[in-house]
Amino acid sequence: MTLRLDVFDDFHVHGASAPEWNQRYLQVSAGSMCSSLAEVTTDSMHVFRKWMSERVIQQGCLPSGKICFAVPLGEFAGTARMQGHEMRKDSIFVLRSGDEFTLQRPKGMELMAVTFELDDFRRLLDERPWAPGAQALLSRSVLRAPDDAMQRLRHDLLSLFDEASTVHPCDSDSIMDVPVSNVVFEALFELFDVAADVRQLVGSASASFVVSQCHRIVEAGGNAPPSVEELCLRIRTSRRTLQDSFRQVADSTPVHYLRCVRLNAVRRQLMSTRAADLSIAQAAEDRGFNHLGHFAERYKTLFGELPSQTMRAGAGTARALVLPSDERAGMP
Fold first, then answer.
1. CATH, domain 2-195, list 2.60.120.10, 3.40.50.20, 3.30.565.10, 1.10.3260.10
2. Is the CATH number 2.60.60.20 carried by domain 205-309?
3. Most buried of 98, 217, 307, 316, CB within 10 angstroms?
4. What is the Cα–Cα distance from 112 to 154, expressed in whole angstroms?
5. How many other C-beta atoms can be found within 10 angstroms of the C-beta atom of residue 239?
6. Consecutive 10-residue averages of pLDDT for the chain (332 residues)
7. CA distance 128 to 189
8. Exposure of 31 by Cβ count < 10 A (0-12 exposed, 13-18 middle, 19+ buried)?
9. Helices (runs of H) and strands (runs of E) counted in the chain
């Protein structure tokens, strides 16, 4: 069992830290970001804690052959939504092999998750069968569970980080993988068993559809981003429904959210190209920002730095720091 802790000062670098998940982060709240990612890895499980300072939209896809369970940690301001479903302190969300996902993360949200190899999880199910009602909940994206079951799962997952931090790298194989995975599986067994008796929430599917469609259209719009009126016509909805959907799902106005989509696209483009190959003015124009002064001001407001200060490809190393074990305890 091994422990690793990374600290990032850019969401786009953070997203690139797990390429197999094909993740993208779009920063929505204004400010210089920071984030941390702590990971415990065994032969059949991967447990991680992820904290982010700003509000972001996290998109990705669970790698094939895995199943993932995630729960929020601590307090955070605002509403988190997974696949359009509100995620609360008593919520756990589930991803299955190859599932694409969109997670609206409020500022300061910390998430803890465990990913099993799907074959190992099915083997555990064969050895310790769940009741039909509990197994049926595995098809849901987000479900609620009683607080005591949520607390046990959090406790068992957090204890892995405590245990791994005390193990010398040379002795990491001394912790048996099978008992560790069985402990976590038993906590999930209990949680899903009692959750089967809890009234589950209904997601805001229509509002999430409106936001995701607008997001897709603007991303594909290139240097001619559509106006709010054009978006209403294309997805056949009213301006009020559009505004209400963004407020409900993204805690934002359509104009601010969709401008952030374009600003994040410019930032990704700048970070992935050399300054000699692409100017800032051209990158901005490619995303429909035709007034360079206004663009630079909005860019700095969102990311806390001017576009000229953004690290370009070939200009330095990725901004991620792996902390030694004696500095881990102070991280969120």
1. 2.60.120.10
2. no
3. 307
4. 8
5. 12
6. 77 71 89 89 89 91 95 87 84 92 91 94 94 91 90 93 68 57 93 84 72 92 92 95 90 93 94 94 96 96 94 65 39 40
7. 9
8. middle
9. 11, 13
